[in-house]
Predict the 3D structure of the following.
Amino acid sequence: MIEDVRRAAAEVRPTPRQVAWQRQELTAFVHFGPNTFSGLEWGTGVDDPAIFDPSALDCSQWVSALVSAGFKSVILTAKHHDGFCLWPSKFLPHTVAASPYSGDVVAELSAACQTAGIGFGVYLSPADLYQEKAPGGYYGNGSQAVASRIGSFEYVVDDYNRFYMNQLHELLTSYGPIAEVWLDGANPTSSAQTYAYEAWFDLIRRLAPGATIAIGGPDVRWVGNEDGFARETEWSVVPFANGQMVAEQTAPEVAGPAQLAEADELRWYPAEVDVSIRPGWFYHAAEDTEVKSVPELLDIYRKSVGRNAVLLLNIPPDQRGLFADPDVEALTAFGAAVRAYYETEVQLPGTVNVLDLREDITSGQLVESFAVDALIDGEWTEIARGTTIGHRRLLTIPPTTAAAVRARILSSRADATVTLGVHFDPLLPA
């Protein structure tokens, strides 16, 4: 039985959309809104729009810092849980149009991304405290599903799902191209509200067929923590039963033999690692001295990108509407370090302390375990072992002087081709 499932898993392939997403490796998150000015992490839903008043907003400054650090796309919190919209949506008054800031943050960031040639994505919170608390609000109001027009398409949805899909329609038709739609699973509200996920996904596919739908969507899953690391064994081929992942997304293992044994379906469902450059997701001046250091960011890089995931790093603009100096400095140094230490091969013979293994994921994810040997003083010596590889696996080792290195596949679901590179990171402990 398990051998049959392993063989089936070897045949699972990513879509071109998923391959392009994985190859980005670095995606930026931008949390911005009333919380930036109130000091909260989760707004109340009744925040006065007048609080949103950036004095020098410049999305091109954000994008310039991100491009210099090697990020390939950016996702903006167009609407967080508080329900405040960073674009002048015609479906409610609680937007930038009611604030002292008269612009359109979504439009400005989209334009800056297009100019710089990087992807632009939107975060549209399914949970909505404004719609829960406002008189006549839609969230959790118990309305019945009825036939509704969303643009030129018809769906059977209740009041809130119709409202949500109308906002999706605005974002996907007015601010494209859209590279990623991010659906947060957090729920700070007290109301019972069901989400018409399949209708949402259908609308996104119709309007933005190239967009990745994460993390409450069919393309990308949440890694299960917000601490910046993927699992040591991180499979992109994930078992499902009755339409749901066999394991919880937070489980220590989501696609091991025990989970495979329960599967009635296998899907390519890779992990995204979301973490903030600061302790909080929104800007707080008190955290200016707590921006993650370059060694910390590189450790996150190795444990996310280097464990077959994509890193989604949050950088929150300050009350001016700019990335703060400590964040820009950290980004700049991080990008330089990645280019110098993880995009540059060490010439052998030489000293290495990072091993870089890769599979061609267009042919699936096949390797279950591997070893790496180094030619030291004329003899092959094993220097590392690991489990999964996937798009990329980065392993740190003590500094080792070698004439050559080689990878050995110990267990694989089918014949696999693995490439092996080596790096030296001087910021790692000796």
Notes: Residues 325-341 form the longest helix (17 residues). The radius of gyration is 23 Å. The chain has a mean pLDDT of 97. The CA atoms of residues 131 and 137 lie 4 Å apart.
